[in-house]
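Quiz preparation item.
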């Protein structure tokens, strides 16, 4: 009997997850370690990246206390995309990492876009560069922290820094490279034009490897700290959205995926490298032969609006009880609308200053109507994203994963707002499991996907019609509110 185990590590925004799975994708270990990032100034989000390394080693120690290291065949990583780490020649971080949701560069973005448009080969990058992009964060350090810029030897994305600490190698993957605003999507390589336009030395850029490529092994120092003898292989890994798409079967079935986590992400797969005009085109490149991409767009507030409403406004953590107070008869009939872009928007409006809003409040408005509006608002925002990025072929269904997918009411709302069946995955299938799958692919060459325990939630034709009318009113509202706080870009 094969007892081989494969480890996945997910460097999330507020937690690191570790999981170990068998070749049949049965989870035999899973643990989450929470942490927080700092906000030293308004709009800034930072973290000492060594926090990730310390937590990862702590988690691996705990894992190896339960699972013998000789059973483990490989390690895969995933994590938050865009978050940029600045590393010196000795592999040490020269300043805190700048997170994906950092807004310090919002005033520089219009100028960066104009510079990118000045050359035909880099013009397509101007559509995706935004606050939190590695390009913007690199330029900010270069312009504002001359001493740190002088010490800079390499930039890495979050998961890549952890890989550096585990293996001593400086690599990234095509997913994180292609979403960095430093990458030529037409040639699948770092953009020479961007390097020249912004005077960025090619030596700053790590080697790009396909997601399942073995890039090194655990160093002797790491093995000693973990108390193991095996120098386990580590694969290149990928960004969390591609990892979620892998484990959900998104690539296998070519159906769109919605991830309801800290942010609300729409992921649309395409096997043939068709680049979309709207949304962020992400090169998946699981292996050398793979030509698939995903196009993704994000409602940055995502499922966070749910906890915001309940915990900060209502001061309760009784999520289920609050949703039970919403009458089914109110679905599709709610007169209150909620604009969900509470902390800026990158894909549709390109406005980092965008804020949320309630519209349609009356003296008759009750608590349940406002809560329903919050849940519906994200669904409307996700629908708008999907329609702006969709493939020419209509989907058969949507898969929804993430913390928000645990709510039956929210899934019902999504089914009827989108007008398609929703595949609600019932077992734990998250980005961390996608990272483990990459470890299997890298060490074994293939993986057999088991049938995932899921529920198909069908829309109600009458509710579809009601929500179509609601969506039209939502679009009118969004046209006005999209300019709130700054110019549409």
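Solution:
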């Amino acid at each position: 009997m094969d007892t081989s185990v494969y480890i996945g590590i997910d460097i999330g925004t507020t937690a690191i997850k570790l999981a170990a799975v068998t070749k049949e994708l049965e989870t035999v270990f899973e643990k989450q370690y929470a942490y927080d990032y700092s906000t030293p100034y308004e709009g800034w989000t930072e973290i000492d990246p060594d926090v990730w390394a310390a937590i990862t080693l702590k988690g691996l120690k705990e894992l190896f206390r339960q699972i013998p290291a000789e059973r483990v065949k490989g390690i895969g990583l995933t994590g938050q995309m865009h978050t940029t780490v600045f590393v010196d020649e000795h592999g040490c971080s020269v300043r805190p990492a700048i997170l994906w949701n950092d807004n310090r560069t919002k005033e520089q973005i219009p100028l960066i876009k104009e510079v990118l448009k000045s050359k035909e080969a880099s013009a397509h990058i101007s559509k995706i560069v935004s606050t939190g992009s590695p390009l913007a964060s690199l330029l900010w350090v270069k312009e504002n922290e001359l001493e740190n810029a002088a010490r800079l030897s390499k930039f890495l994305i979050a998961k890549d820094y952890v890989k550096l600490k585990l293996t001593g190698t400086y690599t990234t993957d095509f997913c994180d490279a292609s979403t960095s605003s430093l990458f030529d999507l037409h040639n699948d390589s770092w953009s020479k034009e961007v390097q020249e336009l912004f005077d960025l030395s090619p030596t700053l850029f790590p080697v790009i490897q396909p997601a399942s490529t073995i890039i090194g092994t655990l160093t002797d120092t790491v093995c000693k700290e973990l108390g193991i003898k095996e120098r386990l292989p580590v694969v290149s890994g990928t960004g969390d959205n591609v990892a979620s798409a892998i484990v959900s079967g998104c690539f296998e079935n070519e159906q769109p995926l919605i991830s309801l986590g800290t942010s609300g992400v729409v992921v649309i797969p395409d096997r043939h490298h068709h680049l979309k005009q709207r949304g962020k085109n992400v090169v998946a490149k699981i292996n050398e032969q793979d030509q698939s991409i995903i196009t993704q767009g994000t409602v940055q507030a995502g499922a966070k609006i749910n906890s915001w409403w309940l915990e900060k406004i209502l001061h309760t953590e009784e999520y289920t009880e609050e949703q039970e107070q919403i009458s089914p008869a109110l679905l599709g009939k709610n007169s209150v609308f909620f604009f969900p872009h509470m902390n800026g928007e990158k894909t549709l409006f390109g406005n980092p200053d965008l804020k949320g809003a309630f519209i349609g409040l009356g003296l008759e408005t009750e608590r349940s109507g406002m809560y329903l509006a919050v849940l519906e608002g994200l669904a409307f925002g996700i629908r708008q994203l999907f329609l702006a990025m969709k493939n020419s072929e209509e989907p058969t269904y949507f898969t929804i994963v993430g913390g928000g997918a645990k709510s039956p009411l929210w899934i019902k709302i999504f089914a009827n707002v989108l007008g398609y069946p929703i595949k609600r995955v019932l077992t734990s299938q998250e980005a961390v499991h996608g990272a483990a799958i990459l470890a299997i692919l890298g060490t074994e060459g293939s993986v057999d996907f088991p049938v995932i325990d899921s529920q198909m939630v069908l829309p109600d034709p009458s509710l579809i019609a009601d929500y179509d009318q609601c969506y039209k009113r939502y679009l009118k509202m969004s046209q006005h509110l999209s300019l709130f706080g700054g110019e549409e870009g």
